[in-house]
Amino acid sequence: MILLDNSIIFTGTVKIAGDLNLSQSELSWVSSAYSLTFGGFLLLGGRAGDLFGRRRIFQIGLVIFGLGSLLVGLAANAPMIIGARAFQGIGSSILAPTTLAILMDTYRGEHQIRAISYYGAMAGIGASVSLVIGGLFASLLTWRMGFFINVPISIWMYYLSVKYLSKNEGHSGKLDWIGTITSLFGMIALVYSIVGDWMKLPFALLALVLLVIFVINEGKSNQPIMPLRLFNDRERIGAYLGRFLYMGTMLGFWFITPQIMQNQLGLTPLMAGIGFFPLTIVNFIVALRVADLTAKFGNAKLLAFGTAITFVGMTWMSFFTPSTGYWLGIALPMLIIGVGQGLTLSPFTAAGVANTNLQDAGAASGVVNVMHQIGGSIGLSILVATQSMFKSPVFGFQHAIKVGAVMLLLSTMCVILLIIPADKN
């Protein structure tokens, strides 16, 4: 549900702006408001499940997300849709880490590896498939349908949670209010300094001050919202940094590639979404095999191979020109990227929560999702800024993708230098 709504914003921007008479600035805030609350509340959402019970917090997230989706679908003007997207982002910030923590609670051993593999695979499969679904809604029905559909799904999931999830009362302890406030406003200021449209530097400085206070507090607090012991493990550090860089490339790629397909190859939003099929199909097939491949080759080796393959595909795509056309310039590189993506996101998720105890499962899941969200936001900004430096849209696209390829290379180095040695130990 979370990934679907992001993709609808990507593919339906023109129709959303037309229906609601949004200016370019207002349209950008449809995404930015969601990013602000999603990134800001992630650590709180992850830790709340540890303290107050995963099922209870998961259900609260479903209610907020479902209601927020309904309000977005009913929006009639800019303030309504921006406010509803911000509210929806709070629900996402609760659901994203809590679902992963529930899987860690529910499964053990090989079953846990397989469950986490499927969870990680959804990040890639969902983002790719959702571009197609978003294009379908935007072109054939209405962009509102992509948000309305979340309402019955949320109700159904709430019922399933009552029926199947065990009632976990959480661990004893109190919420770290200083850590909560500084992390909340520090993350909001950080995301705003990336996606905002005015006074970015003051917000970046505010984010730095608040996050420094947050880290100092976490080292002293008896009940930290983000236990610093999560960063004592070399494998987890490698996973956090590697995922940050990897998602920075992939979100930028998902954002600018549909535009180049529409503007340079003349595809409609629907056809641009369908144009991701090579990546989507291969990603789906590979991701379903990750659990078996992990058992055979190990998580770290699979991850190194996956990030390296993604780098190769992204480098190939950086040579796209309209004369190369869709098949040679986009579809074939997408096949390689799809293999790499299918092999990467699940192992990154597994490494990000490796060697954690159940008491910290929610906090560790929150950090994984923070790196996913913040890395994506920063990477998207970098790639878009790089693209805008060139008058030629094609040259801009080529250089933006090359920057993404460099980030993938750095992600691969994180795996080789941090995760593989830790995995051997």
TrEMBL record:
<feature type="domain" description="Major facilitator superfamily (MFS) profile">
    <location>
        <begin position="1"/>
        <end position="423"/>
    </location>
</feature>
<dbReference type="InterPro" id="IPR011701">
    <property type="entry name" value="MFS"/>
</dbReference>
<dbReference type="InterPro" id="IPR020846">
    <property type="entry name" value="MFS_dom"/>
</dbReference>
<feature type="transmembrane region" description="Helical">
    <location>
        <begin position="201"/>
        <end position="217"/>
    </location>
</feature>
<feature type="transmembrane region" description="Helical">
    <location>
        <begin position="27"/>
        <end position="45"/>
    </location>
</feature>
<feature type="transmembrane region" description="Helical">
    <location>
        <begin position="269"/>
        <end position="290"/>
    </location>
</feature>
<feature type="transmembrane region" description="Helical">
    <location>
        <begin position="326"/>
        <end position="354"/>
    </location>
</feature>
<dbReference type="GO" id="GO:0022857">
    <property type="term" value="F:transmembrane transporter activity"/>
</dbReference>
<dbReference type="GO" id="GO:0005886">
    <property type="term" value="C:plasma membrane"/>
</dbReference>
<feature type="transmembrane region" description="Helical">
    <location>
        <begin position="366"/>
        <end position="385"/>
    </location>
</feature>
<keyword id="KW-0812">Transmembrane</keyword>
<keyword id="KW-1003">Cell membrane</keyword>
<protein>
    <submittedName>
        <fullName>Drug H(+) antiporter</fullName>
    </submittedName>
</protein>
<dbReference type="Pfam" id="PF07690">
    <property type="entry name" value="MFS_1"/>
</dbReference>
<keyword id="KW-0813">Transport</keyword>
<dbReference type="InterPro" id="IPR036259">
    <property type="entry name" value="MFS_trans_sf"/>
</dbReference>
<feature type="transmembrane region" description="Helical">
    <location>
        <begin position="177"/>
        <end position="195"/>
    </location>
</feature>
<feature type="transmembrane region" description="Helical">
    <location>
        <begin position="116"/>
        <end position="141"/>
    </location>
</feature>
<feature type="transmembrane region" description="Helical">
    <location>
        <begin position="147"/>
        <end position="165"/>
    </location>
</feature>
<feature type="transmembrane region" description="Helical">
    <location>
        <begin position="397"/>
        <end position="420"/>
    </location>
</feature>
<feature type="transmembrane region" description="Helical">
    <location>
        <begin position="82"/>
        <end position="104"/>
    </location>
</feature>
<feature type="transmembrane region" description="Helical">
    <location>
        <begin position="302"/>
        <end position="320"/>
    </location>
</feature>
<feature type="transmembrane region" description="Helical">
    <location>
        <begin position="57"/>
        <end position="76"/>
    </location>
</feature>
<keyword id="KW-0472">Membrane</keyword>
<feature type="transmembrane region" description="Helical">
    <location>
        <begin position="237"/>
        <end position="257"/>
    </location>
</feature>
<keyword id="KW-1133">Transmembrane helix</keyword>
